[in-house]
Design brief:
The complex is a heterodimer of chains A (266) and B (409).
Chain A: H1 4-14, E1 19-25, H2 31-43, E2 48-52, H3 63-74, H4 79-92, E3 98-102, H5 104-110, H6 112-122, E4 126-129, H7 138-146, E5 150-151, E6 153-155, H8 161-168, E7 175-178, H9 191-204, E8 209-212, H10 218-227, E9 230-233, H11 235-244, H12 252-261
Parallel strand pairs in A: 1-2, 1-9, 2-3, 3-4, 4-5, 6-7, 7-8, 8-9
Helix pairs in contact in A: 2-4, 4-6, 6-7, 11-12
Chain B: E1 21-22, E2 25-29, H1 32-49, H2 52-66, E3 72-74, H3 76-82, E4 86-91, H4 101-115, E5 119-124, H5 128-140, E6 143-149, H6 150-155, H7 157-165, E7 169-173, H8 180-193, E8 198-200, H9 211-219, H10 221-233, E9 240-244, H11 249-255, E10 265-273, H12 284-287, E11 289-293, E12 295-300, H13 325-333, E13 337-342, H14 343-357, H15 363-377, E14 384-389, H16 397-403
Parallel strand pairs in B: 4-14, 5-6, 5-8, 6-7, 9-10, 9-14, 10-13
Antiparallel strand pairs in B: 1-2, 2-12, 3-4, 11-12
The chains are: A alpha/beta (266), B alpha/beta (409).
Chain lengths: 266, 409
Amino acid sequence: MTNRIDNTFSVLKEKNRKALITFVTVGDPSIEDTHKIMNLLVDAGVDIIELGIPFSDPIADGTTIQSASQRALANGTTLKSILSLVTRFRKNNKHTPIVLMGYYNPVFRHGIESFCSDATNAGVDGLIIVDLPPEEDSLLRTIANKDDLHLVRLVTPTTDEERLSIILDGATGFLYYVSINGITGMQVIDEKTIEERINFLRQKTDLPIAVGFGIKSSEDVRMIQKYADAAVVGSALVKKIEEIGEFHKEGELFNFVRDLSETHVP
Amino acid sequence: MNDLTNSADIDYSCFPDDRGHFGIYGGRFVSETLIFALDELAEMYQRLKDDPGFQAEFDKDMAHYIGRPSPLYHAERWSQRVGGAQLYLKREDLNHTGAHKVNNTIGQALLAKYSGKKRIIAETGAGQHGVASATVAARLGLECEVFMGEEDVRRQSLNVYRMKLLGATVNEVQSGTRTLKDAMNEAMRDWVTNVDDTFYIIGTVAGPHPYPQLVRDFQSIIGREAREQCLAQIGRLPDVLVACVGGGSNAIGLFHPFLNDENVAMYGVEAGGEGVETGRHAAPLSDGIPGVLHGNRTYLMEDQNGQIIETHSISAGLDYPGVGPEHSWLKDLGRVNYVAVNDDEALAAFRELTLIEGIMPALESSHALAYAKKLAQSMSSDRSLVVNLSGRGDKDILTIAAMDGIKVS
């Protein structure tokens, strides 16, 4: 079976559409709620789901995701409970790609080999480990690739051409372009910079390119999708979840995500 | 791990490797955004560290601004009282700003000057590194912001005020456990956001490569001086070195120039808090497991799910769940012995040194003193033991007074 991430991007390409990727912190407000939210996201048109693994010291995250992580940890969310959530979700959803996003220590503690096989068995398709640059990721990458898990590499505004070639060497799945120097949930993305950077990346890789950080509204999503293959909405959604607390279809959260996904038209 | 068996054959001056690894420890575990800044810093440091002009500037500041060399003081009265080995104190408490921290901030501020960046940031626990950073920022006319956990701001209010007087902004960190680790998280978030114009002065031998190396190199002046002073005063190398270990910068500074001297034994003293057996402590080398935090692989205090757990120590400067990666390596090699001292024992040592020698040590350094006393008692009087008195205790007076039920206004 081909990896669901590859599959999704190739199907969307045929339809000449761009992807919407959403990030939620697992266990915020509870694991059960995350399960409901995942189904809601799919119904509202989300193409790829990123599940945040909560960590006690999320140095790449702003206050919104920091607080969500703390709530999730207080609920007893662990890597094990996240993987069993994915297993349950997969019973009724065989097609939506799931990417686990988090920090290295919980994964390292779980054990790299067992983590990769457990994740694959649960139905995970990719990993983003924000504090694991290419220099340190060879062990995880080798084992993940054997299990047909993509280890997604990140590119930032500070990445120069020399660095990019190191990042692209071994990159699979898609390339995640972090749109700003900074942490999640910050404001201000500049369209001209995005355009320049994506054009630069396109010359160097055929991998699909997703853009994340600072994308808050359907306008932002539409702008990103003009240039990139996918837009990632994280903090804005996590904030909505914090505010709303009710996650049924036709509710406020559904409408928020529906608005984001309706920008699919190129 | 293949080099673990034969620690006597290792040339310790050759580490870390060019990617910042000490055996399996160290490295660079950070957001991609910071890689270019770390590359830039590593490159600049490699270029400058053997540059005579840079070294001359550093040496000049050490002599005329910090007041180095710091004395090696034979605490004869204390040695007699303890009964055993001769106790020598390396008086880092006499440095300008009152602790060893300034050795490193002078070095990094020079790097900041060469880099052309106009803003420096720093994390601090006890406030000593914050004060040392604010001090060099004032002297060089740089903007300075210090990140400090809310809990530590309360515990170390005198140092907070000192930083403000020196013109620094003190950012009270309210996330997580509100102590040193959270201050470091917040400093790293700031750095990743303002990386183009900001120089991050890390205060200890932790963090991503090249920090553990460059902080060690700047702090190694402690051990180089102590080595010469021992040869001059005792006529030979000391038998034992003792230093407290939080992140471990004062310890590595003392130990490093002696690592290749096989006959010098070394003890790193961690904060045992309420007792290592209670779990309420800050002693990852005594009771932790290797993991990844703040940019490096090292021993950490964490739960079974890899989440970092809260630490406990009377001393804000040791209240940290990790430790510099070189210490983790030295522990596995067996080159340095790591032990723990409880809050109570440290307090007793604080009082004893104050009353017997008229020297008021920082609570951090008091951990080293407490263990040195135990060690000295098991040694004969012709042996010598050097304790790093890493800082002075003035900053801790309010904490001590509160314990005595005295309100100092």
